[in-house]
Amino acid sequence: MIVAISVDQFSADLFGEYRGSFTGGLARLQKGAVFPSGYQSHAATETCPGHSTILTGFRPEHTGIIANTWTDLGVAREDKQVYCAEDETVPGTDHTGTYTVSDKHLLVPTLGERMKAANPKVRVVSVAGKDRAAVMMGGHNVDELWWWNGKAMVSYAGRATPPVVARANAAIAARIAAPQAALEVPQQCKAHDVAIPIGAGKTVGAGHFAREAGNASAFRASPAFDGAIVALAAGLVQDMKLGQGDTTDIIDVGASATDYVGHTFGTEGAEMCIQLQQLDATLGSFFDVLDSTGVDYEVVLTADHGGNDIPEREINAGLPEAQRARVALAPAVAGKAIAAKLGIGKPVLFGDIPNGDVYIARDLTPAQRKAVQDAAIAYYKADPQVAEVFTAAQIAATPTPKGPPERWTLLQRARASYRAGRSGELLVLLKPRVTPIPDPTKGYVATHGSPYDYDRRVPILFWRKGMTGFEHPAGIETVDIAPTLANQIGLKIAAPRMDGKCLDLSKAGAPCA
User: Fold this and answer.
1) pTM confidence score
2) Which of 30, 262, 366, 442 is the most buried (most CB within 10 A)?
């Protein structure tokens, strides 16, 4: 059985900071093949693009998953934003709360799909705290696929709910209905247990996950959420008897709590430290369950992206360049200023965040479109928080990057997550440590999504009972995971050929013969 685990927002920096304190599942994995500097090599370091690389072997330029959300001005509905894991053609939907989950935007097969195509008896299971994680790792032909929708673990409409899922949902409901006392702060977390003011009388950094009864949002941003996800995965392994037939089965597990903790509290407070210690214990228990089945299983663990801490704490830590993005960088705000300057009486720029893809209105004359593009480039390049502005033509003309991902230029990183027809006319990249959340008092306080290594670097760990452990310091990519696992199980990779390369885990990370 293959067990593929993604720990959302588990950066290489966090792994390096805490790896010596782990005693459970994350300690076990360090006895296998350790690649501490894996890379989500592309610029769009968001959840959906990152998960689309892990088990397909393709970068976002080929998976088609260029962001969590992109703009499609040709969509028939009023909402022109498209969520990566939705079917936007379903009437009455939008890209936020009413979307219909779909795999239609993923343009390539996953490892599980390839395994099932080679042998229909293979079982493919995907469980995650986010629908986009479950879909992008599972793919288009999945036996069981479950994600958290804010109230329960759910799947596609019309699918039967197995007893193990019903039991899991009952247990989760009971957990949320009960209050949660503050968790103990481990000794290794005490130095992080410092409250940092972020404005409006709010602080982060000294939270211990106490929550009131019925608070599902707080449950999601806590270690208990990963506990529920992993418990369901363990139950499915047991009930379905995965790995006990005459084929190799695969289960994908998306542990999402680390990301919600990072967004809600930042990455360097007591909250993240406690979260990772708890995750280590949760994974240790999970592997004990797998051991008890007697199945020969191989684990790979990585992340969809890294993350950046809150600028308020980074400044205290000696990073004076850390800051929050100005509201003026939002495409709607920039577009309003540009439209006024050019005398155009309608919106001209579209996009959902201060960094990333920017789209130009289609209902303009060619001359107006050129004027808007030129003005937008000048507007963004004049801003001291902006590092680069690339046009679609610049990115498209750049060859697909090769060589060590740590050496790629910003333009090459942008090329790896660019897809014509889906990406914007412009790509705006902020300077390092500029957090694209102008106001931390109204929602999330920290995020990711930059082209810099604190968001690109992730650990990649392989473990199988009896394997000879080693550590390989050079950069590899998450797209190398799928061809490596395929080689482990003797699966021949037919077209389409993957972007990633196979790593020979018996020869300290050398390419496969």
Assistant:
1) 0.98
2) 262
